[in-house]
Amino acid sequence: MTDQFAPKFDGHGLLTAVVVDSGDGAVRMVAFMDREALAKTRETGLAHFYSRSRGTLWLKGETSGNTLQVDEILVDCDQDAVVLRCRPQGPTCHTGAESCFFRRLEDDWLVPGD
Amino acid sequence: MTDQFAPKFDGHGLLTAVVVDSGDGAVRMVAFMDREALAKTRETGLAHFYSRSRGTLWLKGETSGNTLQVDEILVDCDQDAVVLRCRPQGPTCHTGAESCFFRRLEDDWLVPGD
């Protein structure tokens, strides 16, 4: 637990990234960052991720325009996860919902969240 | 995007789990859940995870007493990540900090968060 930033990428070279709306504090999405996505995010101020399904770098909002402007990056105790505090441009979820976490679990069903 | 709960575990049999304090909405920690950890969490109302380093089921707070009482589970659009809205008993981080995300990134250094 040094004070120098030394991100601990997992066996696939990834960190877990949680996107939080810096306005209301709500969790908007969870994704993964490799070293390049982290570097691009820091360089540009726009959240970039690594797509595990496509195997490529991914600028969030590249096609939809719904980018995430990063205000602050929080790092956890063991440096294998980050929280990106962001100002989202438009909805974050590809379904059009503000947050990807728009449903809650009730028995074995997903029902609309608050 | 069905309405039935059908968690999409990754190649290692894991979901990403983000723990949020249901009181103030702050992100407290990020961990992983396998099918068993998810089932135990739902049965007991206490957050259980899968420890990737030890390769075992893990009841958060088993030794420290700092358990997480789960109020609600939110599920994301593609069902590979969950947010656990919890009432934490005591600090969540093993360092004694309330949240594991107690530092923010500034240049290449980690400095205390707000």
How would you describe this structure to a colleague?
Chains A, B: It catalyses: 1-(5-phospho-beta-D-ribosyl)-ATP + H2O = 1-(5-phospho-beta-D-ribosyl)-5'-AMP + diphosphate + H(+); 1-(5-phospho-beta-D-ribosyl)-5'-AMP + H2O = 1-(5-phospho-beta-D-ribosyl)-5-[(5-phospho-beta-D-ribosylamino)methylideneamino]imidazole-4-carboxamide. Chains A, B: GO terms for molecular function: phosphoribosyl-AMP cyclohydrolase activity; phosphoribosyl-ATP diphosphatase activity. Chains A, B: In the C-terminal section; belongs to the PRA-PH family. In the N-terminal section; belongs to the PRA-CH family. Chains A, B: This is Histidine biosynthesis bifunctional protein HisIE. Chains A, B: Its EC number is 3.5.4.19, 3.6.1.31. The structure is a homodimer of 114-residue chains. The first copy, chain A, has 114 residues and is mainly beta. Chain A has one domain (15-90, 98-112): Ubiquitin-like (UB roll) (Roll), CATH 3.10.20.810. Chain A contains one helix and eight strands. In chain A, the strands form three sheets. The first copy, chain A, has a four-stranded mixed β-sheet, with helices on one face. In chain A, β1 (15-21) and β2 (27-33) form a beta hairpin. The radius of gyration of chain A is 15 Å and the shape is globular. The N and C termini of chain A lie far apart (37 Å). The mean pLDDT of chain A is 96. Chain A binds chain B through residues 1-5, 10, 16, 18, 20, 24-27, 29-30, 52, 72-78, 81-83, 93-95, 97, 100-105, 108-111, 113, and chain B through 1-5, 10, 16, 18, 20, 24-27, 29-30, 52, 72-78, 81-83, 93-95, 97, 100-105, 108-111, 113. β7 (103-106) of chain A pairs antiparallel with β5 of chain B.
